[in-house]
Each structure stands twice: as structure tokens, then as C-alpha cells.
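Quick log. Single chain, no ligands specified.
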Amino acid sequence: MIRALGIFLLCAFAFGEARMVTYTATSTVSQKDADEQAMAGLATQIRAHVSAAHSTQKSEVKNSKSSKLNGQYSESIHVQTELSLDGIELEHQQLAKEKWQTTASFNTDKAASLLRKKMREANAKAHTLDSLIHAALARHQYDIAIDAFGEMAPLQLLHQRAVADLAIFEPLTKADDFSMDLFALQAQISEALAHLKISPVDSVPSHVQNNTLGPFTFRVQGEGGTLNSMTVLAEQGKKIIAEAKTDSNGLAHFILRNINTFQGSHEVIFRIRLPHFGKRKSQTEYKVTYTSDEPSCSYSLDCMGDGAACIAIENFLSRVGFEESKKGKKLLVKIKTLDTQVFDGGPKKIYTVQLSVSIRGEGIHFDQQLKGSGSSEHSAKSNAIYKISSQKIPQALKPLCK
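-> predicted structure:
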């Protein structure tokens, strides 16, 4: 019987002549034991039949015109390389009673060919993105350029993993480098973004009315004049509370509702969305100071439920204008998990939960069932909590305000 398997082998860094490598193992324990011995022996065969060329490989990679990742990779690859050998064939042969034999075989030519295909595909996609970025920069469509550049790094990582695996079988040359110079491309984008500027169009509202602040209108300009389709973010307390894209006239419009409405003075920062390497400057953001005379709404929380969900409740109530305080009125929150499901989403699992939330206090009676999903059960519960109605909860908790 022949079947294809994928296993991970930790191999010493080396080169070798591509060929079919085989290893046969016999076990008196089980067929599974024979399989494992054969695959372990195959790994040893690969190590034994490739000749090391550490210094050559290190020089080739380190002297490439590629990115910083290649430099880091060149320092570590001579120690060990993690290689995914997809396509190992196991052939079982029937022997005498209570004896099992397995022959494992691996085609290094085929493996190298598949790795080079991955490298070519990564480079081809990178070239497509590079063309898109340059066209977007020429048209002053900086949001498109920023998003396209964000797709480059995963392609570079994919390419370099393939290079690390290929180094097991073949010597590498500069032709195997990632074809895009991301540092140069990043510098071009940074230069274009250096001319961005945000400014208010009309007088800026400075007082909260009915838990609302606004309207605001901001103009975004660049080297080519006003810019459309640029993303502007509204930020308070290092949290993004709203975002808007500029229209054909380069204008972004806001009415803020999810803001701090406690009595006193507060700040909101409106800023142009920049990539992770973009430097925030005074000209790319605008600070608004406002005041609120809204009644102070505070509570003393007694939460029964999952810790992550209780923290999410506090964060949510803070977002809608309720402050946790020892001097506040008592608020009892009960969170029950009604259902939990786990889905296999490929590399990561996806958790979906259903919760019931009950909030009680003096003159307060609020119940809601919620659903949420996330990469863990805790994050799924937190995401469910944030789906509490932000319209109904302020009215339900009005007795907390004074």
C-alpha cells in the first residue's frame, strides 16, 4: 500500500545531488512502528547523502540585495533548517507473522521543483503588487498603495521559507533571492506620505450634546492637492472610535457618539491612517478638545461569570459613558455560557459562543442573549459582550446617573 504523508524533519544545513532517497525498516512491534522507523531512517539518509557547503550558502544569502529578513536568515540557517517533506511514499511489505516492513522513499528532484514553483509564484505576485503600488502612488491613491504594500511581507516570508527548504537539496544563488527590494519601496511610499496634511473645514464643535459630538468635516491634502479615498481615524484614549474615507472633494465627515461623556474636558485626535512605518507628524493629525456637562454615571460592579467576559463588560460600559467606581451604585452582572462550538478553520480553530447577560441594580433590569466568535473561547466571549445594544443599554442604566 502506498500513501503520501507530510512530516517535519529537522535537518542539518547542507547541499546534495537531487535524487530518490529510500530507507527500509522492519519492526516486530507494529506497522506504525515500522513506518516511524522508516521515516526516521529516511531523514538520516538525507542528512548523510548531502554534502555541506555552509560558507558558500551564508555568503550568497548575506550578499543578496534582498531584505533584512534574508540577513537574519543567513545567520541561523547553518545551524538548522525545518523542512516540510510533503510527498513521502510509504510502501508496506507483508512479512512473516508479527513482522512489519516499510520502505520510505522521497524524490528530492520533485521536492526542489515544488519549492522553486512556490518561489516563482511569490515573486510573480510581488511584481504585480509592485506595479499596483507605483500606479497608485502616481495617482496619489495612497490608501491603495499602503494596503498593497501590506501584502508584500507575507509573500517575502513565504519565499524565504521555500529558500530555507531548498537549501537542503541545492546550492543557492542570487537568482533565488526575493525579487523585490522592500526597503526601497517603503522609502518611496514614505516620501509620498510626507506631504500629507489634515485640517478642519469649518469651526470645530467643542461641547457634547445628547451624548453626541459633531458634526466634523476634515480636508486631507497631499502633494497633488485634495485626496479622495483616504482613511481618517478618530482616536480617544489610544482606541479607534470612528473612521471615515474622504470623498471626491477630499473631505471626511464625522459625528461621534462612542465618546467619553463624563463631566469635564476631554480630547479626540483625528488622524490620517498611515502604514506601520509611517511617522505621525503634527500635520497628519488634528486634536480636538471638548467639554461635557452630561450627568456623571458611575457604578460598583459585582460580576459573576468568565473573567474575560467581565473585563469586556467593564470596557463596554466605559465606551458608552459609564464609569466603574467604588462610590457608584451597585450593579450585579451575571454572564452565563449557553453554548460553545469549535470549528476547524485550517491552521487555527474558530470558537463560537452564545451567552446570556443579566444586569440588575436599583431600578435596573436588563437581559440580552449574544453570540460571538474568536480565535479562543475568551476572545469569542469578549466579542459577544461588545454586541450588547449600545442604544438600549444607556437607557436601561439611566438610574446610575446623577
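The domain at 197-292 is CATH 2.60.40.10 (Immunoglobulin-like).
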